[in-house]
Amino acid sequence: MIRLVVNGQARQADVEPEMPLLWVLRDELDVKGPKYGCGIAQCGSCTVLLDGAPVRSCSVPVAAVAGKKITTIEGLAQNGVMHPVQKAWIDHEVPQCGYCQGGQMLAAVSLLQKKPKPTDADIDAAMTNICRCGTYARIRTAIHAAAAAATAKRV
Amino acid sequence: MNDISNISRREFLKDSALAGAGLVVGFHVPTAGAQTGAPGISGVEVNAWVVVRPDNTIIIRYARSEMGQGSLTSAPMLVAEELDCDWKQVSVEYASTNEHIRRNRIWGGMAAVGSQTIRLSQDYLRKGGAAARQMLLTAAAKRWAVAESSCSVAGGVITHVPSGRTLTFGDVAIEASKLQPPKEVKLKDPKDWKLAGTSVKRLDIPDTVMGRQRYGVDVQLPGMLYAAVAQCPVFGGTVKSFDAAAVQSRRGIRKVFTIDSGKVLVVVADNWWRAKEALKLVPVEWDVGANGKVTSESIRGFLKAGLDVPTVPVAKKTGDADQAMAGAAKVLEAEYYTPYLCHAPMEPMGCTARIADGRVDVWCSTQTGEGTLATAAAAAGVPLDQVEVYKMQNGGGFGRRGGSQDFTRIGVLIAREFPGVPVKSLWSREEDTQHDFYRPAALYRLKAGLDAAGKPVAFKARVAAPSIFATLLRLPLKDGIDNSAMEGFAEFPYQIPNVLNDYAQRDTHVPVGFWRTVGWSQNPFARECFIDEMAVAAGRDPFQFRRELLAHEKRPLGILEAVAKAADWSKPLPPGVFRGIAVTEPYAAFTAAVIEVSVSDKGEVKIHRIVQGIDCGYVVNPDNIVAQIQGSVVYALTAIGRGEITIKDGRVEQSNFVDYPMMRISDMPKVEVVIAPTGGFWGGVGEPAQAPIAPALCNAIFAATGKRIRSLPLSHHGLTLVKA
Asked: Residue A136 and residue B665: Cβ atoms within 8 Å?
């Protein structure tokens, strides 16, 4: 039995230790936010935050994350209050099909934690997730907007 | 807050309720359903499009699919515009595909393909809204016993103007629903629109952002099993033998078997990863059939032979091109080539199906609910009206989830092996990449004759390409022409006195299908680059050259001029920066692009600026048009830069995003969008913007380097796209 903390809740799964975290979340725990896109850590649709850092859950064996805190897109809003990244994503109408956007938003959250005022170059370096609908221009705009909103809040 | 539900989810909810709470997590639980008389449903259906609840909230039905193109919002906007309700009252639900069949196709077209959702539904959507408005107004006037002409409607409220009395839609919905629908309704002049034509927030985005959106791959049902599939690597091949015993004892494995006369090897397990891992370990021998030696080169040779067939079906003929060519002062000839391409939506193919008691339920990401329904009925051997399709948000479509429906057929055939049990089949990315219905490869031979003054007197285009209509849809070709393969050549807008554009159908064993913008994604590369070659040969500016040849074509000319103006075509560029231009007429819309580049010694093509314009006639949701154009540019550049599916030993060589690479944010150039609607017609939006990108870019590369790019992708020419 492997114990995990998913979006603040203690969960457990009776699975093979090598099963990727993605499939434990999706098929065992019914957490569907992380998506399967490639299975080889190329696309980032399966991105989750592991103790706050983005990982591609399709390529992380569940045994490696036992006891760690996992945040999926479902757990990003706190007490019904959207994260500034989510708010910016809505304000700027970022998603098209939306399949990759959970991963995109979690990658953005992590970037803003490390760099509260990211430059375009920072965004290019950190945001490596694939979006086939081509929402990149709006992802960039929304990240800058979320950064500005967070700065305004601190002031 | 507008929410989205699905009439057909009533069944889903009922099933889930039996199995206990928690199973509907993430699905909208409709606070009220839509169908008059159905259990627990409190809304009143005024007509097929409009359901009014007693609390005066309104459900507008949406009949097609949502894959990110935004029509789930913009189609209901047209109903709401004529209904004169308050948009804040509105929620949207998918029309049930099963009800559609039972009610004599009451919701019209259900397919989200060919950029047609708005342009081919707008008339009946607006009439549906207007008819419901009229019935609600009549019901109120009757209740007050006043003349209808003394009543007005706004914001979902009917007012008797002389007395100031009011009734809401909810107050009179039941009476309205009993009235005969009006025989005729008068639609608003688009210039009087209040809602349509403004940027309205897409209704599905909040769910996506909160992680509540549900795609086909997310369906979760009680007792569900999971299937991984492998088709023969060589298209058309079958399983000769396999050894189930090798994996049967692995944890969670339920069954290892083949379906569809041995075409697909299947492993079903209690978790998809277990199924997929076991599938890799099943020893299997394939009978690859007759195509095991086919290569990209052999296909290219086959296409090339199509260029030399003396007589093939003619798509466009004006004057006598051969004679005019013989008398021309200058003759140009060139061959162009575009490769096979894979759709690669982020959500791979899949389908969940359950067969019980002679009935089939299918949950899937599909661009055509009716196509899914018909495919499921055939695969399960049940009548059409015994199938329900639960349309899920598509994790990208791009044409892959339209006509082929191979994923539905496979999913239903698998479910046949487990009566009463829902089975979710999901393809690996590798399976998705290697078993697509690819954007056809095409080879072009173009020829033009100019007179001594540089004026074109003759134009010829031969297209050698597979036919999607003949092979995928198995439709007879009218006059031997595949309309998709000849897009841009059959409706040739340039005024040249002698034109002969013809089509050599060259079908191969590689399956082909509709891919975002289809023929318009590739034919303009040949046409518009060759027009550029003609302009250069004539010593003319490529914009002015096109202007003159389009002088009689108001709309292509209009968008060409609008984009050239926005891109400052007449102004000089900084040293080292060069521009290209192209114009196209896809899907009843008109698009043009100007792209500015600089090219380094190392072959880096730096994109400084993209100005992309569209005239789609009427504009429903402008910000969504901007989004579609931004996305189209990415889809186009991804293909132009490095996109290519190649064949070796009869099979696809690429397998995943490592060898079929995708553009990322770091490559994304700035896109300036010009929306220049001229009204009077309804054009598409989702696809047309892609059409002029490849030629505008390659014409810019020519301007910068003097090197004419006549085949794609650019990587074959030592060129790499980079952001400025």
From this structure: yes
Give CA–CA dist B489/B461, Å, rounded: 7
| CB-based contact, B429 to chain A, within 8 Å | yes
Q: Which domains does chain B have, with CATH numbers?
A: 4-209 (3.30.365.10), 216-288+349-426 (3.30.365.10), 296-340+438-723 (3.30.365.10)
Residue of B207, B209, B270, B666 for testing the chain A interface, max A β-carbons within 10 Å? B209
Distance CA A15, CA A29 (A): 11
Token readout for B202 is 């897409």
Same domain (yes/no): A91, A63: no
Q: Does B634 touch chain A (CB under 8 A)?
A: yes
Domain boundary among A31, A56, A75: A75
CATH code (residue A111): 1.10.150.120
Dihedral through CA B559, CA B560, CA B561, CA B565, nearest 10? 100
Distance (Å) from the alpha carbon of B448 to chain A's nearest alpha carbon: 37
- Per-residue pLDDT of A45-75, as tens digits, reads 999 999 999 999 999 999 999 999 999 999 9
Q: Mean pLDDT across chain A, nearest whole number?
A: 96
Residues 260-299 of B with CB under 8 A from A: 271-274
Distance CA B51, CA B134 (A): 14
Same domain (yes/no): A11, A70: yes
B346, A135 contact by CB (below 8 A):
no
Q: How far apart are CA A89 and CA B627, in angstroms?
A: 13
Give the CATH number of the domain where residue A46 resides: 3.10.20.30
Could you report the per-residue pLDDT of B295-304, keeping only the tens digit for each? Answer: 999 999 999 9
Question: Closest to A90 (Cβ–Cβ): which among B205, B347, B348?
Answer: B205
Residues of chain A contacting B205 with CB distance shorter than 8 Å: 89-90, 93-95, 98
Compute, in degrees rounded to 10, the torsion defined by CA atoms B491, B492, B493, B498.
-130
Residues 323-352 of B with CB under 8 A from A: 344-348
Domain that holds residue A114: 84-154
Q: Is the minimum CB–CB distance between A127 and chain B shorter than 8 Å?
A: yes
pLDDT tens sequence across B180-231: 999 999 999 999 999 999 999 999 999 999 999 999 999 999 999 999 999 9
Beta-carbon separation of A127 and B664 below 8 A: yes
Interchain contact, B218 vs A42, CB within 8 Å: no
Residues A149 and A88 in one domain: yes
Q: What total of structural domains would you count in chain A?
A: 2
Do A17 and A47 lie in one domain? The reply is: yes
- The rounded distance, in Å, linking the Cα atoms of B536 and B542 is 7
* Phi, psi at B379, each rounded to 5°: -70, -35
Same domain for A38 and A102? no
pLDDT recorded at residue B7: 53
Determine the residue among A15, A99, A124, A139 to mutate to test chain B binding: the one whose Cβ has the most chain B Cβ atoms within 10 Å. Answer: A99
Q: Kindly state whether residues A18 and A59 are assigned to the same domain.
A: yes
Look at B210 and A86 and tell me if their CB atoms are within 8 Å. Answer: yes
